[in-house]
Amino acid sequence: MKKFATGCVMLAALTAAAHAQTAAQPETTAGGLPVEYLNTPPPPQTGQAPTMRVTELNPDKRSFQVVFSKGDEAIQGLKEFADKNNLTLAHLTAFGALQSASISWFEADKRIYKTIRLKEMMEVTSFIGSIVKNATTGVRTVHVHGSVAVYRNGTVYAGHITDAVIGPTMQVYVDDSAPLTTTAQAPVTAPATAPAR
What we know:
By secondary structure, this protein is α+β, with helices and mostly antiparallel strands. The protein contains two helices and eight strands, in the order αββαββββββ. The chain has a domain of 109 residues: CATH 3.30.1330.80.
């Protein structure tokens, strides 16, 4: 009986060790790599964006550098700049530093923006967006997404930038083009199936 009990204990220990070894093995891909690694990007496939729209832009685009100084409000300043220069379809990028900003996320179920208001020095780590003129009303909208890192501890906040007061300075680069043509991808449909005979 004692030998039987000892054997059971040894069998349980071996089983536990085998399970532990299996659990320790990282999950791998078909190529033997850990799942968080990618050897080569997957091959491109067509038909994966059936509702994509393509707009050909005017090759004679206008380019601007807009430099803000301490205390300027960037979003309102860009709106004023766009109106004065009759921008129609522009994209922008920027870098610099802010002393205050509002970072927002749109909550679709509530139809409102949740906002964090920062009032401290921060570095602009991303600032990209568009300035678009509404063809019906003529009103221009400045729409910016971005991220900032606060000087105090490097914490990063990202989302819609709805207001931004400049710290020392910020440089914005704007390219404006008038749209020439807009095309939509033809819907991808399944081939017709021949009727059964």
